[in-house]
């Protein structure tokens, strides 16, 4: 999207319940929640990759190597940390 609000587009461009976007510290990647899974995509919306299931509200570490997220895997909401491998 441009600063004036034009050229708005959906990232990634797919039909799913996507939300909770979180920019990586360097601005090149976006982590997001989709159908209770955590995905990471390039900022242009291409190459979305699934990283974990049963997760939401992703948040990047300051150095961009990990993502913290919430999950209710055993009946309790807890915080988990995912080591991110991205090529």
Helix tally equals 0
- Biggest sheet strand line-up: 1-2-3-4
Helix-strand category: mainly beta
Mean pLDDT figure: 83
What does this structure look like?
The chain is mostly beta strands and 87 residues long. The chain has one domain. Helix content is 0%, strand content 46%. The chain has a 4-stranded antiparallel beta sheet, with no helix packed on it. It has a 3-stranded antiparallel beta sheet with strand order 5-6-7, with no helix packed on it. A hairpin with a 5-residue loop joins strand 1 and strand 2. The chain is globular, with a radius of gyration of 13 Å.
Which terms would index this structure?
single chain, four-stranded antiparallel β-sheet, 87 residues, three-stranded antiparallel β-sheet, mainly beta
């Amino acid at each position: 999207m441009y600063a004036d609000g034009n050229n708005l587009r959906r990232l990634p461009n797919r039909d799913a319940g996507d939300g909770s976007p979180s920019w990586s510290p360097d601005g090149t990647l976006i982590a997001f929640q989709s159908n209770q899974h955590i995905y990471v995509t390039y900022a242009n919306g291409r190459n979305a990759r699934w990283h974990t299931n049963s997760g939401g509200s992703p948040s990047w570490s300051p150095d961009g190597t990990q993502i913290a997220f919430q999950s209710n895997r055993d009946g309790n909401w807890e915080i988990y940390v995912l080591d991110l491998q991205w090529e």
